[in-house]
């Protein structure tokens, strides 16, 4: 059967309108290329299904042509999107991606204990993996370059967002709308796995402390089910919060679900903010912190290529987030949750109605 | 540093309370083992992070110890869940999973054209990949065992649900509630990629034809955005359907979103049914067809192991679906979409109010 013609570096250069040496620099992750040019080259390489011919090229110095992506779970929204960015980016430099699920420290230990991994891959990307010292030590025991994605570890190569700053901003947004009783919903599963960066809850606590208000951190199960249960419990508390900041959109969706079931007006009686900006956030009209998840995966792939090309480990990249304002958060009505026409102004010191 | 002790087959046998030969039979996918025993062995193997030592074992006859999972996209819910089942199942027989995104026939061609794949993997799992003859031919040109997951191809090894039967059942459910104008929402993206099995729309058409009612198939973009746009357009049509059957929960969520935005009561003025039963379906109180997605991935992994152990290709496995009745679908009120107290009985021939 006819095998499709393989694209060459010169084809990519022509399509991107740059020199072959620029293509080479981009694909090996070298610095000093303008972001727009880099994006054009990567797009051209992807469109041409260009893969660096491993044996004929010194672009990637790894021995196996494979990278291990270790994820705690594959099913949540975040991982599919990040993995997509990573897999596609690594393909542009001729690297394949092996995917492993190892959520808990114990699973990670068992996984790393299997010697074959050391012969199987050139580098490891740890996607949203708990950066506890034991796990980091185990990963490094492999003797391979490691890139942390969506988590920061001091002195290690990583790409993440400013979880702390973004969470503080979102909390301040609620405070500035006039909310005082703002609960933070965070997820843990049975294994103790933390479903989002600890920096996120720290940012919330920072902002609450600066405002002189009492924080309320509620720990619940993962996903929308966790958000549902935590919010149901909060509706039975006294006093009820007027705003919920969920560590992820999944958790926020669960909160919105139970609020709708209970006919608690959103944002009239309860404001809700999420974190992620997944597709469903728009459908649910959820105000949320948007993080560039595909780009997190892509940048992790770029860092892997750079490390394999000889870059020293330890570079830390931070991608920007932004607050996407929709209709799930507004100034609180009154504090008894009865929908009245009285409302507090957008100010930290609510006046008496 | 201390490397954790490797588990042996005898450890797995002891933990599962079976003989080592039973462990061997289960892990190489041999038939004749009771499902409960098989599950116990697989659980024990997973708990012990047991991996077949490739060089010391004839359990898996492949040369590389790797399987390629080809997915059209990684970000939708379905793929993370199916991949999770596949990756975990393959690990129990010591196989690693390489993940590739190749959604379109063109991408698949480029991908398969890259010779390295032939040396890189022992088998291929095509996850929800279009089974058009050209793609099938290209996959088979690799000369490797191929398992189709969530799609059926005549004569090829596959695992799927009965999309046609399940869709016909869901359609009949709406017909039996008294709906006549039932629109089916299906997704296509720019590349022409079909986001669900063509058997699904066929099942809808079957049921509508048998009931003597006119079908209305609306083709839209993928995901919740597609569902949103299609439903918005339907609200401007005349006559408006009284029920929507969305090919996936994602599409159904978009429909629910726009209906809520437009204050169209669900199920009062519009019933909605989805397909998948993802987590959000419960939150959104969506009536939907539940398919066992993790199990689809697991079964695909089991079939790969069996093929590598010498089983002849061509076995087709069908997993069961079930209709999960929630509150997004009910008997239609009247045909003008005004919420009145008049309602039609649960019957195909509505009587006059």
Descriptive overview:
Chain A is an alpha/beta fold. Chain A has 3 domains: 9-60, Orthogonal Bundle (434 Repressor (Amino-terminal Domain)), CATH 1.10.260.40; 66-161 and 294-319, 3-Layer(aba) Sandwich (Rossmann fold), CATH 3.40.50.2300; 163-292 and 323-343, Rossmann fold. Chain A has 13 helices and 12 strands. In chain A, the strands form 2 sheets. In chain A, strands 2-1-3-4-5-11 form a 6-stranded parallel sheet, with helices on one face. A 6-stranded mixed sheet of chain A has the order 7-6-8-9-10-12, with helices on both faces. In chain A, helix 1 (9-16) crosses helix 2 (20-27). Residues 1-6, 51-61 and 335-353 of chain A have low confidence and may be disordered. Chains A and B meet through helix 4, strand 2, helix 5, helix 10 and helix 11 of A and helix 4, strand 2, helix 5, helix 10 and helix 11 of B. Strand 2 (96-101) of chain A pairs antiparallel with strand 2 of chain B, so a sheet runs across the interface. Chains A, B: Residues 330-353 are annotated as: Disordered. Chains A, B: GO terms for molecular function: DNA-binding transcription factor activity; transcription cis-regulatory region binding. Chains A, B: Keywords: DNA-binding, Repressor, Transcription, Transcription regulation. Chains A, B: It comes from Nocardiopsis ansamitocini.
Relevant CATH superfamily of the largest domain in chain A: Response regulator
Largest sheet of chain A: 6 strands, parallel
Radius of gyration of chain A: 23 Å
CATH class of the largest domain in chain A: Alpha Beta
Assembly form of the protein: homodimer
Give the name of the CATH architecture of the largest domain in chain A: 3-Layer(aba) Sandwich
Widest sheet: strand ordering of chain A: 2-1-3-4-5-11
**Could you name the CATH topology of the largest domain in chain A?**
Rossmann fold
Share of β-strand residues of chain A: 15-25%
Return residue spans of chain A where pLDDT drops below 50 for at least 5 consecutive residues.
1-6, 51-61, 335-353
């Amino acid at each position: 059967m006819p095998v499709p013609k393989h694209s060459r570096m010169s084809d990519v250069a022509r399509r991107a309108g740059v020199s072959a040496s620029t293509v080479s620099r981009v694909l090996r992750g070298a610095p000093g290329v303008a972001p727009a040019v880099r994006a054009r080259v990567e797009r051209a390489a992807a469109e041409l299904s260009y893969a660096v011919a491993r044996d004929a090229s010194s672009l990637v110095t790894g021995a196996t042509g494979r990278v291990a992506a270790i994820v705690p779970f594959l099913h949540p929204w975040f991982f599919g999107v990040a993995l997509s960015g990573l897999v596609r980016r690594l393909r542009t430099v001729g690297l394949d991606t092996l995917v492993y699920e190892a959520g808990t420290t114990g699973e990670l230990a068992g996984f790393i204990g299997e010697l074959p991994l050391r012969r199987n891959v050139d580098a490891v990307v740890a996607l949203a993996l708990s950066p506890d010292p034991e796990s980091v030590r185990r990963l490094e025991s492999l003797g391979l370059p490691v890139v942390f994605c969506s988590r920061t570890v001091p002195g290690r190569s990583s790409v993440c967002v400013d979880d702390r700053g973004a969470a503080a901003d979102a909390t301040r947004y609620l405070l500035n709308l006039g909310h005082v009783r703002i609960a933070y919903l965070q997820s843990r599963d049975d294994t103790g796995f933390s479903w989002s960066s600890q920096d996120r809850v720290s940012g919330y606590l920072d902002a609450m402390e600066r405002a002189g208000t009492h924080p309320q951190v509620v720990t619940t199960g993962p996903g929308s089910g966790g958000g549902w249960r935590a919010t149901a419990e909060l509706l039975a508390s006294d006093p009820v919060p007027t705003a919920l900041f969920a560590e992820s959109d999944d958790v926020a969706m669960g909160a919105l679900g139970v609020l709708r079931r209970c006919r608690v007006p959103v944002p009239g009686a309860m404001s809700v903010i999420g974190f992620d900006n997944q597709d469903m956030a728009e459908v649910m009209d959820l105000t949320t912190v948007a993080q560039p998840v595909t780009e997190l995966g892509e940048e992790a792939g770029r860092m892997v290529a750079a490390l394999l090309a000889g870059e020293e480990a330890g570079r830390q990249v931070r991608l920007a987030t932004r607050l996407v304002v929709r209709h799930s958060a507004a100034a609180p009505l009154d504090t008894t949750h009865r929908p009245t026409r009285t409302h507090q102004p957008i100010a930290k010191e609510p006046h008496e109605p």
